[in-house]
Amino acid sequence: MVQDSTKVSMKGKSMNRIKLELEYPLRSSTHILYQYISTPSGLQSWFADHVEVSSGSKYLFRWEDGTETHAVMIKNITNKYVRFQVDNAPSPDEFMEFRISTDDITNDVELIVTEFINDGEEDIAASIWDSAVDNLKHIIGA
Fold first, then answer.
1. Which domains are present in the chain?
2. pLDDT digit string (tens) for 100-132?
């Protein structure tokens, strides 16, 4: 887990935001994994309960508890990574990213999840991502 810390001011409040990076080894080809991180149906199978796309790059992620997140896919490199700019993020520099990394020697594949969270919420965020990636592993048989 890698963390970079930044301070963000929100309407008179000052809060520390950190960049959280989580790495998950997966037994999968990069091509198959990429389908699960870059397509609405793939994301809906493990990340959110419902995913809608409009105008090609505007995403709406919904969960059963009623929460939803609007985001724009701002970068997409086939079989490498996707990056989303989340609406209403405290800083325009914040993003959520799914990156596929392959070890040059062993060919082991990792999914690296990056998001920005409030300082002190690392354990909660990691637990949520652990659960989501466990679902992904189950779906792809990793």
1. 2-123+133-140 (3.30.530.20)
2. 999 888 889 999 999 999 999 999 999 999 999
H-type helices in the chain, by residue range?
Answer: 30-38, 40-46, 122-140
Q: What is the pTM of this model?
A: 0.86
Read off the amino acid at residue 51: V
Query: Over 50: is that where the pLDDT of 89 sits?
Result: yes
Token code pair at residue 127: 């637990």
* Per-residue CA distances from 62 to 26, 50, 71, 115 (Å): 25, 5, 11, 17
CA distance 95 to 100: 16
Instruction: State how far the alpha carbon of 19 is from the alpha carbons of 33, 42, 59, 116, 121, in Å.
Output: 23, 25, 22, 5, 11
Burial 21-43 (b: 16+ CB within 10 A, else e): ebebebebebeebbbbbbeeebb
Helix (H) or strand (E) holding 15: strand 13-26
- Alpha-carbon distance of 80 to 102, in angstroms, equals 9
Residue 10 has a CB neighbour count (10 Å cut-off) of: 10
